[in-house]
């Protein structure tokens, strides 16, 4: 008889576990606040949770859940005003919020880990109430929101990071990030956006567009592109930078000073174009090798490259100002092909684009000569040179 006493509770526990197993497995769609409360006993939810587009006007709260192993997604929930998950610590896959045009409150007090975070078209979202701070995410994309800062994002490393079209975003203090293993891109946010990466040491690719300040004091290297387009700063300094892939400064209307005091190697093209106020390039004293083309156009008066031993691609310098090409040629070592012209009305980049004034453009990918046989390279370069002589 005694064993029955134990058996009953044991069965009851097993039964509860089964019940929890069923109701705590995805995919699950939440259509109203009641559907959300029904999940409150799930500490771990296995699979995906989707918040339906048709959720009624008002808040949705996911209480009790600590972990979602799959994704948490919400697309086109026009009437959702608030989304909260006070206990949720991690989302294994993607946290996607898109087109929640009335969403004003996003309260995730315990969240520290997401697979990927993708927020877009949230025009009324002014802050991320991630009280603990998201410290782990493979990729982050925040586009078309009303955020004024990125408080709540506290990553150490990140893969791809895209922050774009957030018209009120003025601060992006991503202080903890030491390593960007993918592509980081900032564009079309508030024009006073200041970006500070005080601890960033390495990145794969980075592009900065339309920003008013970029601080990268500890950046040592980028494997791929480091590009600055259509920015509003006067000075760009990267005091610890030694090596980049393509390096581009295009259409930065106020830029007067580029300071890269220990940059030695550009493993791609080095392009400077359409920076109307830039008169001198004298802040790259240690630059030794450029694997692609060196392509400087604009109204440059002074270019000093005292350490430059080799440009494997074309060397193209064209300026509207009077320019002493001979003096420069004595300074630099081997170059793939030499074009240097002062007093030209319409400076042309090595691909024959206008590079004196006006709008920026995408990099010209001049690392290409590395991938084709050297004979071909020479022919292509000669063709290019004839191209703009005609
Ligand atoms: C949002 O609410 C409005 C007004 O009640 C309704 O017409 C509309 O269909 C709702 N949107 C969605 C996606 O359910
Ligand atoms: C950055 O991450 C990449 C890829 O995970 C790794 O190879 C590299 O060593 C890391 N660099 C630093 C400085 O942590
Ligand atoms: C922002 O940058 C893009 C791409 O470089 C450029 O086309 C656009 O004109 C810039 N916008 C402003 C306001 O500078
Ligand atoms: C620059 O690099 C040096 C040598 O690696 C290091 O000691 C210094 O702390 C770095 N500066 C910054 C601002 O990270
Ligand atoms: C990094 O930039 C290079 C151009 O310099 C480009 O070819 C490559 O696709 C970029 N990589 C990523 C991951 O965006
Ligand atoms: C450019 O900036 C560097 C570093 O901030 C500074 O040392 C240098 O004097 C500046 N050059 C000019 C011409 O302003
Ligand atoms: C420079 O500006 C001109 C005129 O807007 C544009 O056609 C050209 O593509 C730009 N060149 C570069 C390299 O940004």
Question: Could you explain how this protein is built, in words?
Answer:
The strands form five sheets. The protein has a 22-stranded parallel sheet that branches. Strands 4-7-9 form a three-stranded parallel sheet. Strands 14-16-18 form a three-stranded parallel sheet, with no helix packed on it. Among the domains are: 28-154, no CATH class; 220-357, no CATH class. The chain has helices at residues 2-23, 33-37, 325-331, 374-389, and strands at 28-30, 44-45, 49-51, 58-61, 67-68, 72-75, 80-84, 90-98, 105-107, 113-122, 136-145, 157-158, 161-164, 171-173, 179-187, 194-196, 202-209, 213-215, 221-222, 226-229, 235-237, 243-244, 247-250, 257-259, 265-266, 270-273, 280-281, 289-290, 294-298, 302-303, 310-319, 334-341. Helix content is 13%, strand content 36%. The longest helix has 22 residues, at 2-23. The site of one 2-acetamido-2-deoxy-beta-D-glucopyranose has 9 residues, from strand 15 and strand 17. This is Receptor L-domain domain-containing protein. Residues 1-19 form the signal peptide. It is found in: Secreted, Cell wall.
């Amino acid at each position: 008889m005694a064993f029955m006493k134990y058996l009953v509770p044991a069965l009851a526990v097993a039964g509860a576990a089964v019940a929890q197993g069923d109701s705590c497995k995805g995919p699950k769609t939440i259509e109203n606040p009641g559907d959300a409360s029904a999940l409150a006993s799930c500490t771990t939810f296995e699979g995906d949770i989707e918040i339906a587009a048709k959720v009624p006007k008002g808040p949705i709260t996911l209480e009790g859940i600590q972990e979602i192993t799959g994704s948490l997604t919400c697309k086109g929930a026009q009437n959702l005003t608030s989304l909260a998950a006070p206990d949720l610590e991690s989302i294994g896959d993607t946290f996607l919020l898109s087109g929640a045009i009335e969403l004003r409150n996003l309260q995730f007090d315990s969240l520290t880990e997401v697979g990927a975070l993708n927020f877009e078209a949230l025009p009324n979202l002014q802050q991320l109430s991630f009280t603990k701070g998201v410290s782990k995410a493979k990729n982050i994309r925040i586009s078309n929101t009303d955020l004024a800062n990125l408080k709540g994002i506290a990553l150490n490393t990140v893969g791809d990071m895209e922050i774009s079209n957030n018209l009120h975003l003025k601060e992006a203090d991503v202080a903890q990030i030491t390593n960007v293993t993918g592509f980081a891109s900032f564009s079309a946010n508030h024009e006073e956006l200041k970006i500070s990466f005080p601890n960033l040491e390495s990145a794969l690719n980075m592009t900065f567009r339309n920003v008013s300040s970029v601080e990268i004091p500890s950046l040592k290297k980028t494997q791929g592109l480091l590009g600055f387009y259509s920015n509003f700063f006067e000075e760009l300094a990267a005091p610890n930078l030694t090596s980049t892939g393509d390096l581009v400064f295009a259409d930065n209307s106020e830029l007067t000073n580029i300071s890269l005091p220990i940059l030695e190697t550009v493993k791609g093209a080095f392009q400077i174009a359409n920076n109307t106020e830039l008169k001198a390039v004298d802040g790259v004293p240690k630059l030794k090798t450029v694997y692609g083309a060196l392509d400087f156009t604009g109204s440059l008066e002074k270019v000093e490259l005292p350490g430059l031993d080799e440009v494997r691609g074309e060397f193209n310098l064209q300026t509207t100002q009077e320019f002493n090409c001979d003096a420069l040629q004595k300074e630099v070592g081997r170059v793939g092909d030499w074009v240097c012209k002062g007093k030209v009305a319409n400076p042309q980049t090595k691909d024959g684009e206008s590079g004196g004034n006006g709008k920026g453009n995408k990099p010209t990918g001049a690392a290409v000569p590395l991938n084709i046989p050297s004979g071909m390279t020479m022919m292509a370069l000669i063709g290019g040179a004839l191209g703009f002589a005609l």
